[in-house]
Amino acid sequence: MKPIVSKDSVVYFGEECYTALNAYLEKANHSKICILVDDNTHEHCLSLLMSKIEKEYDIEVIEIESGEIHKNIETCSGIWNALSELGMDRKSLMINLGGGVITDLGGFIACTYKRGINYINIPTSLLAMVDASVGGKTGVDLGNLKNMVGVISESEMVLIDTEYLATLPVNQMCSGFAEMLKHGLIQDRGYWEKISDLSQLNFEDLDQMIYDSVVIKNKIVSKDPTEQNVRKYLNYGHTLGHAIESFYLTHPEKPTLLHGEAIAIGMIMEAYIATELLSLTKEELEHISAVILATFPKIDIDAEDYQKIMELLIHDKKNENGNVYFVLLNTIGEAKYNCIVSDELILTSFEYYASL
């Protein structure tokens, strides 16, 4: 597959990943290389990567515990100290081998350690392949508030090899699929229709589906790298989805929701809002809801929690001047950003989701 070139980075696919990586490593002549992994990618993915590196380099491995709960400044502090103790200097390279937590957190660490060292993202989850590792967003959570601290700075390259997905649990695959559905809903009706019927797809289709999804995201990001206008489209489903994810993350008595599972709920609720405020039809809403619920079983959200979740919306990093902004659909494949929604309508969207 042809590499996808963005402003400051290149996304490579399949075996070409390692041709590009080895050429880069030989030319760059980094003083040290650190590979950041979590306990899962250390066990399942590191050996594959190491087998693809052709020459001997001074490589150190730093492992953290897996999970969104560890995507915080405390984890960063530990890794910064480890990098310092390992003698990593400004000519060092950081390779982030993992899912969205590793690519977000590792990118942020690389951008801030010694005011910035080079880094490469090698996403190992479907979510990271189609979303988290592309576009230069890095960051960590602040308590239960998602991605509140970070910078936008692209990696040297992104390497997407679907062989890393072989050991990924089904729920993690589905989590990434939510972002792929989002890309179709906001930008490409044909892509949405193609991937919305999973019964017609097989694993051989996956490489092309991922490639097409990255093309959609890269097209948007290239027009607006710092999210001043059209990049906001990528936040569809995330205003309510992030609030739901944050609420469940900090309430241990609630079930744990993966990012994509929360965003799937947000996409349904925000589609309902669009039927009230924009031109999305009831038929389109029913179609969107049915497709999403076919992959993501409905979560029972207690009515007493609606207000608590809504209170988290004010902390959304996309807000400006005290307003909570939504991305809504005019129709499948066409979105509008900076939509202001009343509390009453948000509450009604919870009730719609509960009625499904």
Please provide the count of β strands.
11
Structural class, from secondary structure content? alpha/beta
* Overall helicity: 40-55%
Question: Spans of 5+ residues with little confidence (pLDDT < 50)?
Answer: none
Return the CATH class of the largest domain: Mainly Alpha
Level-2 CATH architecture of the largest domain: Up-down Bundle
Description:
It is a single chain. The protein is about 45% helix and about 15% strand. It has about 350 residues and is α/β, with parallel strands linked by helices. It has 2 domains: about 5-170, 3-Layer(aba) Sandwich (Rossmann fold), CATH 3.40.50.1970; about 170-355, Up-down Bundle (Dehydroquinate synthase-like, alpha domain), CATH 1.20.1090.10. Its cofactor is NAD(+); Co(2+); Zn(2+). Catalyzes the conversion of 3-deoxy-D-arabino-heptulosonate 7-phosphate (DAHP) to dehydroquinate (DHQ). This is 3-dehydroquinate synthase.
